[in-house]
TrEMBL record:
Species the sequence originates in: anaerobic digester metagenome
Transmembrane segments: 6-31, 51-69, 75-98, 110-127
Coiled coil feature spans: none
Gene Ontology CC: plasma membrane
UniProt KW Zinc keyword: no
HAMAP family: UPF0756 (MF_01874)
Keywords: Cell membrane, Membrane, Transmembrane, Transmembrane helix
The UniProt record lists the keyword Transmembrane: yes
Classification via InterPro entries: UPF0756_TM
Protein name: Uncharacterized protein
Length: 151
């Protein structure tokens, strides 16, 4: 299946699953492909993940910037049990995401399966898609567990 066919399939899946992010991403890549804007692919390949994380971080920090979260709130939350657990969760998540990034670099075609899995999670488990990197991290964890189990 060519890249165009796969993008069209992702577009249709995104529409059927009511996932605006998947549909929009597929549309933008199809537009870039058909308008011969090849520099977009190299830009996204090099910096796309960083740009996505930047926008995610910006959206998370907006309550801090507009004063909805105070310094006292932060200190309390970092010294409470939930705050300490969130620090541990953040550290573990970044470690897992590193493994997911390695998996995506080694096996980039796995993205299609990650997207299908994310769509299934949205439709049947009422999940929220946080991106292929976290999905790849979980897949890397499963893969590592399978390797250990097979020994």
């Amino acid at each position: 299946m060519s890249g165009v066919n796969m993008l069209v399939a992702l577009l249709l899946i995104g529409i059927m699953a009511r996932s605006n992010l998947i549909a929009t991403a597929a549309c933008l890549l199809l537009i870039a492909k058909f308008t011969n804007l090849k520099f977009v692919f190299s830009l996204l390949e090099r910096r796309g993940l960083e740009m996505g994380i930047l926008f995610l971080m910006l959206s998370i920090l907006v309550p801090l910037a507009n004063g909805k979260i105070t310094e006292q709130d932060i200190i309390y939350n970092l010294t409470s049990l939930p705050g300490i657990l969130s620090i541990a969760g953040g550290a573990l998540a970044t470690c897992l995401n590193t493994q997911g990034l390695k998996l995506l670099k080694i096996d980039p075609e796995i993205v299609f399966g990650l997207v299908i899995g994310s769509i299934l999670g949205i439709v049947f488990l009422h999940g929220v898609p946080v991106g292929p990197l976290m999905a790849a991290a979980v897949a890397a964890l499963f893969t590592r567990g399978l390797r250990i189990f097979r020994r």
